[in-house]
Automatic annotation (TrEMBL):
GO molecular function list: endonuclease activity
Domain Cas12f1-like TNB positions: 310-376
Keywords, ordered alphabetically: DNA recombination, DNA-binding, Endonuclease, Hydrolase, Metal-binding, Nuclease, Transposition, Zinc
Region of interest called Disordered, as start-end residue ranges on this chain: 379-429
Domain Probable transposase IS891/IS1136/IS1341 residues, every copy: 170-275
Protein name: RNA-guided endonuclease InsQ/TnpB family protein
Xref: PANTHER family: RNA-GUIDED DNA ENDONUCLEASE RV2885C-RELATED, TRANSPOSASE
Record-annotated Transposase putative helix-turn-helix domain positions: 1-43
Residue stretches of biased makeup (Low complexity): 409-421
Organism: Nonomuraea guangzhouensis
Amino acid sequence: MLAGRRYRLDLTPGQAEFAERIGGACRSVWNTALEQRRTYRRRGAFIGYHEQARQLAEAKQEFAWLSEAPGHCLQQTLIDLDQACSRHGTWKVHWKSKTGNPPSFRFPEGAKIAIERLNRRWARAKLPKLGWVRFRITRPLGGKVKNATVSRDGTHWYVSFLVEDGLIEPERHAHPGSAVGIDRGVAKVATRSDGRFHHQVFARDREVEHAKKLQRDFARTTKGSARRRDAAARAADLARKIRRRREDFAAKTACALATSFELVVFEALATKNMTARVEPRPDPERPGVFLPNGAAGKSGLNRSILDKGWHRIELATRSKARYTGTNVITVNPAYTSQTCNVCTVVDRKSRESQAVFRCTSCGHTEHADVNAAKNILTAGRAEHAQPRTGVRAGARKPRNRVSRKANRQATAAQATAQTEPEPAEIPRP
Ligand SMILES: [Zn+2]
């Protein structure tokens, strides 16, 4: 199976500068080639990879900044562009900007990359034109290198190797028949149908406050100034730190899920809309003025700091599932939080509070997220048992649905109720 291995590079100042130039060359090859494709399309003509590669070879004769970059990296950029254009269409592929796209370039010929271990901690790889680059070997490569990508994240450079690890997907999971439903929420990041949680606070209160301060600092600087650049870098550093915690959490959660369960069911969420703010927030610029809900609240800070990374957990689980033989499926989340898992009656009133579900029909009481996770599992099991019937089991119309009028009354009653009931006993992981 193909797997990625990422290590932090220890480039010399000269190498880092050169890597920056290679990234710049690849970026301008991308932008020039994209503009060329669009120009051709406007004239009703077409230019493909082979013609562009030929013209690139000609351009390299003329420009030193192109010829100094490794040829295969530039070619790879054209191949990536070709694939992006055929997948998304020439007009939907984005330009690469200097600020929005940190340098990244790929060496496609893995067989030609020599890798040597120097000692317990360090190894080095020989990359075309860059020469020997040292990296911290934090885990074994474990396979044959297919290609290598060098990229910068903030101030650090990294190398990712794509390796063929020689492992194959097992025919059957180690725990046949085991299944779990996952409810993704705000109070707990992920609640399992067996009553356990996967939870972590990614940004502590202090850090959220600090991020707000950094954002205010940034807003006070003038465009194009050195202070603005520094303020942006400090904010990005904090966001990166929190992002890494999220990545780590996603990997650990994915590992736990894939190794213990043969079937993992997620709810299909439009995660892009999940960061909508619920309350107005104070405007940092104008004291006493509040920003409205919606677009402003969703941008920037909120997205990077308060994100729970649900999508990442699903992706990581899918990736890990290749090694354990786990099936990962998603179901429509409609009604999962309002349906009783015991008697299947759907009633908004059953959800007493954020934490408590008490069925209005049969009296079944449970932690609301656990009940939702169980419904997700039920829907997933049904879908998994008959995958190609054309009817999505998760989206089934509820049988015993309480009328809309009753639901509206319940919502109004909930809004007026000042005293929240005590949460039910919350199971611990
Ligand atoms: Zn019930």
